[in-house]
Design goal:
This protein is mainly α and 162 residues long. It has helices at 3-21, 24-28, 39-54, 71-75, 77-93, 119-143, and strands at 61-63, 101-107, 112-118.
Length: 162
């Protein structure tokens, strides 16, 4: 298995663990300042990013602005687990050529633009994006007085250890 794909599956597995310790109330709680976002909104956002990647069109184009934004994924653990399983199953059975070029459509604040990537580079970006959102989730967990037994949750592997 390609290292990028393996790393992606390992980091996404943390979503499954997180969902196993939450209930719907904690998943959807949006009371923690300053942004008052919920764990569920971050999980949905992470999974939507991968969903877009897995839905490459016939022109090798991936539109990151076409996210599902399913509110049930943000509020119901069972829906979030189902979406997680859908993404992981698709990733596991995929046979991507990580050196192939894809065109990523995104909106960076000035309208949609198309950017040329390799598929491997896009998955590496998704990996970092996932960890970034895990860091925010970790902040929310702390505000909710929930601790998880994973000292690496929300930390990039390159982060220096004390």
């Amino acid at each position: 298995m390609n290292d990028i794909k393996q790393s992606t599956l390992i980091v996404l597995n943390k979503t499954k663990f997180l969902l196993s310790i939450l209930n719907d109330e904690l998943l959807s709680n949006s009371t923690i300042p300053p942004y008052k976002s919920s764990i569920g909104s971050h999980i949905r956002h992470i999974l939507d990013f991968y969903h877009c990647i897995l839905n490459t069109n016939s022109e090798s184009e991936i539109d990151l602005t076409l996210r599902r934004r399913d509110l049930l994924v943000e509020t119901k653990c069972i829906s979030a687990i189902g979406y997680y399983m859908e993404i992981v199953n698709e990733l596991e059975k995929s046979n991507f050529d990580f050196d192939d070029y894809v065109f990523v459509v995104d909106d960076l604040g000035v309208g949609k633009i198309k950017i040329k990537y390799t598929f491997g580079a896009l998955l590496a970006q998704a990996y970092s994006h996932t960890i970034h959102h895990y860091a925010i989730i970790n902040y929310i967990l702390d505000g909710l007085k929930i601790s998880i037994d994973d000292p690496d949750f929300g930390y990039n592997p390159t982060t220096p250890k004390k």
